[in-house]
User: What shape does this take?
Amino acid sequence: MTFTHFNPYKRDEVQKSSTNITYSEPFNDSYWQRTVYDIWSNNEWKPNALVLNYPSKACSMMKLNRGEAFAKVFKQDASGGCLIPRGTYYVANQDPRMALFPKMPYGKYRCLFTNGLPWRKGCMACAYVEMDLIPK
Assistant: This one.
């Protein structure tokens, strides 16, 4: 995943993200999803600063959070059911903000994103990201 460069002279300008997403199996509402954010404070990571846990309907939650960007990337109507067929999808210059995501205090964060199927042991997809959030 890549982001556009931050311009300190245009602090209100939204950074855009680009990446590709590959699904080897169809992704639907039978998946669970968990995202855990840790924050850096006092020279150590403080675990579980924010935990987003969706025990089911991971596809619908992604669709609800991403809205128009979801419809554009996966070429689906925003009002129907949620099924992403297997394949590779390209995300180019998208606004990374999410509709239902809470505002977070500025600082250094690390994020572990996992998802999978309830009847399979372990996760099927995971991503680890470190980021710096700065005030407006």
